[in-house]
Design a protein that fits this description.
Layout lengths: L12 E7 L12 E6 L5 H9 L17 E6 L3 E5 L10 H16 L7 E7 L6 H12 L4 E6 L6 H14 L4 E4 L8 H12 L4
Parallel strand pairs: 2-4, 2-5, 5-6, 6-7
Antiparallel strand pairs: 1-3, 3-4
Helix pairs in contact: 2-3
Bound molecules: guanosine-5'-triphosphate and magnesium ion.
Length: about 200
């Protein structure tokens, strides 16, 4: 009989470390999947639904919740990195700029291991200037990047569908996944994409 493996399984996921600034980044030999996106777009929630642990990555209705780059170890084999969000308007300009620069440094520095970058956007809002900037740096650095259109449970279904279609039109080379951390839509697609990067056996 053939064993057909259709979906990667998450057997374990644990918090590893929080990193502030450029010090203390793990020197990792393991594949790393990093989540980028504007503040409050749902990066931490996406990670929680992906690993099916409600509170692994801290999520909040208050934007700016994630302030460190948080590393998690999954299946004792690969890492997830949950980044702070950029563009939180209520932060003082100086602090906002500092976070933005740090995230872009992380995205563009070859010594930082990123095997797959997941750019999380709000499906209802679409790509903003800051998202395009992050995408530009990631692609200049040669990172494999996918776009995850989160919160697709909200708004009118047609608007979401049209929004995602126009993102696909603008970025024909990119994988765009329709996602909802609330309903679990797109989880399988995201897992498959990650498995394609870190290996199905992991
Ligand atoms: N309706 C809906 N709400 C969501 C979804 N994903 C996240 N949220 C909500 O959006 C808010 C922000 O979620 P977080 O996961 O904290 O967002 P984040 O991108 O990690 O935010 P920062 O850490 O501040 O950058 C929370 O109130 C979540 O419950 C989704 O798919 N659908
Ligand atoms: Mg967060």
């Amino acid at each position: 009989m053939y064993a057909i493996r259709t979906l990667m399984e998450i057997r374990s996921a644990k918090f590893m470390k929080g990193v502030i600034g450029s010090e203390g980044l793990p020197e990792t030999a393991r594949p790393t999947v990093a989540f980028f996106g504007r503040s409050n777009v749902g990066k931490s929630s996406v990670i929680n639904t992906l690993v099916r642990q409600r509170d692994l990555a801290r999520s909040s209705s208050r934007p700016g919740r994630t302030t460190e780059i948080n590393y998690f170890l999954v299946n004792d084999a690969w890492h997830l990195a949950d980044l702070p969000g950029y563009g939180y308007a209520k932060l003082p300009m100086e602090k906002r700029e500092k976070i933005r620069k740090h995230i872009l440094w992380f995205a563009g520095t070859p010594e930082v291991r990123i095997d797959l970058a997941v750019l999380v956007i709000d499906a209802e809002i679409g790509m903003r200037v800051t998202d395009r900037e992050a995408l530009g740096i990631l692609s200049e650095a040669g990172r494999r990047t996918i776009i995850l259109a989160n919160k697709s449970d909200r708004g009118r279904r047609n608007d979401i569908t049209n929004g995602i279609r126009s993102i696909r039109g603008e970025f024909p080379e990119s994988t765009v996944i329709r996602y909802s951390s609330k309903t679990g839509e797109g989880r399988k697609d995201l897992l498959d994409t990650i498995a394609g990067t870190v290996g199905f056996a992991q």
